[in-house]
Amino acid sequence: MGRKTKFGFIILISIAVLFLFATACNFAKEPERSSEPLVTTGEAKPQVTIKVYLGTDFSSKEFYKKVNEAFTARTGIQVESEMVPGAGNDMYKKVDLDLAAGGTVDVIPLIQPLILDKYVKKNYLLPLNGLMKTEHYDADQRFGPYLTKYDGIIYALPEQVSTWAVFYNKKIFDDAGVPYPPSEWTWEQYIETAKKLTDPAKGIYGSYMLDYDIYLFMLAKQHNVSAYKADGTSNYDDPLFMESLKFFGDLGNVYKIQPSWKEFKTQKLTWDGFMSGKYGMHLIGTWYTSILTNDADFPKDWEWGITQIPTDGKGTNNFGVTYTYAVNKNSAHPKEALEYVKFRAENAALMSGNIPALTDRAVQRKALKEIAVASGGSVTVNDLSKAFFDNNLGFIQEKNIGSAATEYSNIILSEGDLYLRGQRSLDDTVRAIKEKADAAIRKELSVQDD
């Protein structure tokens, strides 16, 4: 190699070293890069939109918009509501048809455990364990006893936990000169209080209850009487189930402190009827705090109070459910759908004025504080705590979960309807419920054996 060639080679090596050194220095000065993949110039990152079932009765509610907007702001995932007609359980008539036909709406709200149970048995839902394990998401740690599992499989995450309480309209109490309910009381006191509040001339009832199945057997639940016998058959012939059905019917038909079952059905009274200001007390789940603190969607000109559910002095259990969200097994975007389910489970209850189904007691306490603030002075944290947690009541699942659970519930409602309307005797009604529930249980078990 000649002298000029050697000299040129040295020059090139020097330039290369300087270039590498300068590049390394510049790299060290650059801020930490995102772990997100780079997008090639001219390409747009694909935008995912997931669909969520929403009953038309809630389609205009600001809360749902607020939750979805917060989720999109955090994740970039768009949310589109799939409107279905109906309020409460009625919305599932359309959802059932969609899912049976292989519908692909990504996220399914499950307002009570019987619907979750039915959809698991019909194989409509995506098991979440695998996806959550991939993302190192510990659902047990976050939700603990509020999780529902089927042989260890998780199909839904709980957004909120709802126990039961008595909400009351302070204005109706004040106008009638009746003291507010005590923190602990009996069903006898409830009835006597409701009688004093009832004023037919003003169209005011002292009590308001709905057409949910739990009302037809709530005394049995307070005594922790199972709806199933040890051999798996219906236990509806237990005397406490008969007593429960009669007790509920008497509230409207005998004591006339609330609309009778027949009036409720024929007049098509609504689940949010208490907000009309025509009822003194409402026995309902604690999810109702989100309604009472939502002045935008449910305006009112009266203050409200809360106290614990009455008892008969012997059966002292409270009852309740969790409100959950699940991913459709046919979802085209299961990962993004799970992100939405997780977001709702961790945030939506606090955003709506409900009690989150989280094991973190500090978060639950925060929820009580926010409800108290949102009530505008109607209730205090202490009022809420005594009604929900800090009392001498036990807690059990309000739904009868077991073989043919959904059919069992429907049988109680359909057969109970005849008694509550005065079209059949109490004995015949209880007998019919027992016989038909047993038949449904046998049918389900025979299908499983096949």
Protein model, in words:
Helices cover 44% and strands 15% of the residues. A hairpin with a 2-residue loop joins strand 4 and strand 5. It folds into two domains: 175 residues, Periplasmic binding protein-like II (D-Maltodextrin-Binding Protein, domain 2, 3-Layer(aba) Sandwich); 214 residues, Periplasmic binding protein-like II (D-Maltodextrin-Binding Protein, domain 2, 3-Layer(aba) Sandwich), CATH 3.40.190. The chain has 17 helices and eleven strands. Helix 2 crosses helix 13 and helix 16 runs antiparallel to helix 17. The strands form three sheets. Strands 3, 6, 7, 8, 9, 10 and 11 form a seven-stranded mixed sheet that branches. Strands 1-2 form a two-stranded parallel ribbon. Strands 4-5 form a two-stranded antiparallel sheet. It is α/β, with parallel strands linked by helices.
Number of domains: 2
Instruction: Tell me the structural class.
Output: alpha/beta
Number of helices, counting only DSSP H or I runs of 4 residues or more: 17
Measured on Cα atoms, how large is the radius of gyration?
28 Å
Main beta sheet: strand number and arrangement?
7 strands, mixed
Given as residue ranges, the uncertain stretches (5+ residues, pLDDT < 50) are 1-44
Ends distance: 89 Å
The CATH C-level class name of the largest domain? Alpha Beta
Number of strands: 11
CATH superfamily of the largest domain: Periplasmic binding protein-like II
Q: Give the CA-based shape.
A: globular
Proper CATH architecture of the largest domain: 3-Layer(aba) Sandwich
The ordered H/E elements are HEHEHEHHHEEEHHEHHHEHEEHHHEHH
Rounded average pLDDT = 88
CATH topology of the largest domain: D-Maltodextrin-Binding Protein, domain 2
Q: What share of residues is helical?
A: 40-55%
Strand content: 5-15%
